[in-house]
Amino acid sequence: MASQQSVLLNAIRRLILINDEEDRRDEQVKLERQLRETDLELQGRVTENFDKLRSVLETFNSVDEKVRVSQVKVATLRNNLRDCKILLRCKRDDLQRLWKEQMEQKKVIELLEEVERMKAIPDKLDALCRTKHFKTAAESLVESIVILGDRLEGVEALKDLRNDIATRKETLKSQLIDELHGCIYFKAPQTFTEDELTPKHDKLSTLPSAISPMKQQSLKSHSRSRSQTAVMLEHQISMANLIPKPVEKECIEIIEDVNNLNPEADLPNYMAILVEALYILDAIPNALEALKSRMLGEMKLIIQRSSTEVRERAEKSGELSPDQNQQSLLKMLLDTAFMKYKSVARAHQIVLKRLSIFEKKMKIDNLYLYSIVNVWNDIQRVIMRMLQDYLDTSTGQNSSTLTAVDVESRDINSFFSKKNIHPRQSLFHLYNSTHSISIMSYMRESKGAIPSLLEGMVDDSTMGHQPTFLQEHLCTPQFRNITIVYQPLEKICRHIELEEMRVETKQEKSNELGVFLSTFVEDEFLVKIKEEIMKKVDFLTSDSQRVVKDEQSGGMHKERRSNKPLLKSCVGIEHALSELKFLIIDLPNYAKDLLLIGQRALETYAKAAQHLYYDLTHVGGDGVNGELPCVSQSHTWAVNNEEMRNHIIRLPMWSSLHNTTISQSNTDQTTLEQESWIVLDQIGSLEIKKNLIITSVANIRNLGLLHESMEWFSNKIKNLLTEVAQAHSSLKSSEIAKLHEVNSTISKLSDHILITLHLEVRMHCLHYLPPAVMRAGNTNEEEAAIEDVGIKEFNRDLCSLEEQLALQLSDMKLRFLFDGIGHLMATVLINTGKKLQRVDGFCITRMSVIVFLLQQNLTNITMSREAELDHARQFYELMRSTPQALLTFATEQEYNFTNAEYEQALAMICKSPDYKGEFERIQEKLREHFDANRSN
Predict the structure, then answer these.
(1) pLDDT digits (tens, 9 = 90+) for 633-667
(2) What is the DSSP string of 479-529?
(3) Domain boundaries in the chain?
């Protein structure tokens, strides 16, 4: 419309501005044309919207009619209201009375509904408790108490219900406390897995065991170097303090899903609900008191249940045997119990975290929380008490390590003290039965009950009677059980240290278990081990036991691949020292102390072996009445004669026995001949009397036994020390070197004994052969072909030596003893001939008989013909020739003798009166011949 007006105004304005008539007519024509166009457009639109226009007009008419009717009704209603107002003013008092009656009836109905709801509360509580929705039950209970004490306070008919609700409140408190105990001590060990119990801050798990105060005390007690250790400890502890504490999300309110049919599936949330329910019931102080008062008893019951569990498991698998000391079951018990303890500690952490939230956020007054340190302290005390039983320790209630400091009013000494309690006797009392705990727990769970300290076997803990451990042990109590549990206990101590390190508390963090473990090992275990080993060494090295053979040598023979016996003392002490190796593996922190024990035992045994060696080679004099003790000549040479000992060590057989290679410039035969001349040169003009040789067959046999034992023992100790050094690289080389040094003395003793036996055989030759040769020089025709008594005795002596030593020594060692004895005999027979006054045919015949008898006997001993004795026999056969014939023999080299032997033969022939004066002449020719051969 506005646009049309603007168009019209514009047209009028233009007409006013036009003065020309023609222009006016043109403008008129234009306007008429536009008007016609507008009319046509209007007519078209009216035609198009005619139907709509008609309906709008009809609607408008109907609305207008309704408005007029409504105006009439409103006027009528206004008149009616005016009439009602007049009537209400007349009935005001009656209406007020009726309104008050209505309100009273409404209040009565509401109270009746409340009463009906209160009557349903017990059933509702029972249903909620059965489904274990305790928070909702607590809220309903508190709400009902508020309603009964406020809105329904004056209803005397609800007195019984009020008393019932109050009783149910106390019952629910006890049930919640018992349920919380059940979650902590029964459900937590069955629910939490190893991953959930492993600390997230386990960076300290790689720290060495020195971080423990127990080990620090051990280091101090053994006067070990503290400079580097202290620095390392300070660094490790400072690193531990830098570990971030795990941050848990603090949630003040826990929402309980009443539709959840298994609220215990999420145990941490379930325990949080229990704590919140206790808070709702205002039972937090009572719950805390119950948790703290029952904690120690519950910890002890875990040991009982774990013991029963391990026993039943072992019985099912057949591992439990009454005839064997099942020490592995003790380790299994410790592992099982500590897994439960870690679960219990984890549960306590959840409870304490929830309680601390209430303390901080809701400002609960007089709330004295215990700390996780209290939990671990009680765990340590119970483990210590168990260890006292299984280790059979003498450190009881009087030991300072067990008088632990208790942050509460409890006395740990009274807990561990033995009381003479006389309980009432019951005919069918099963509480002390081996399987009673597991059976009663099963019966409770089958009935839906929660195991509690208030019922059955464990009610003693709440009545002031301390529960006792099971009387039947899984293994024999003994101090050696520490070897099974030491390393697991070390891990437990480190775990406790790490757990306590996370806690910021003013309470002193103790390490009673570590101190107990260290004190027991140092003050009891090591002392007893030392006493046992030293007593064993003293017993086995006593006079009555020194040369007793191993009674169970069959197993040792199999191990050594030899049928030769060993000294019982040697085998026994080797077993004892081998046990030290396993002790070092089990107690690596005390390797140095155990090595010192082994060193002392080894030194004691080495001294005893030295004394035994001296006693076996003792041949005269006892140091009494002015008589000097005297040992055999072979012992003197083996120990003091370095030249003789070095020559024997260079023998080919010696290097074969010791698996060593020695460069030799001479042949075996030449070396043996050299040995013979060295022996004779050392003897000189000394006569080997009978008091300078070992005549006791038993001593000879025992010398062989001692050598074999010392050699075996030395090799075993050497291998043992090598294994210990490889297994414990932390040990200093000086600590092992001391033992190697002591062991080297035993090895040297073994070599000295073998050299002594080697020389003893030669001393017997030097004792018997020279007198036999001298007797041959005085032989007549009748005695020439008769066996010499001395040679007969000598042959028996050699056979006896070979027979006794063959029982003790290997074939190679026996061969070493008799190897070269033919050379020595031939050398002695030839060299002793110088002392004969005359050499006639009867003497030569007698010497041939002697050589034959010696050769026959040696063949039986060495199992080979001794050709060197043929050389001696041929030497004496030269005595039948003349000096000129001897010169011819030497010139033609018909017989292979040395220059000295030819000259000696010439001197012996010229002792005959028939050839007196020819010695110098023939000797000159012999020397000229020898010089000519030497120049060629």
Answers:
(1) 888 888 888 888 888 888 878 888 877 554 444 44
(2) GGGHHHHHHHHHHHHHHHHHHHHT---SS----HHHHHHHHHIIIIIHHHH
(3) 1-34, 49-88, 645-682+748-880
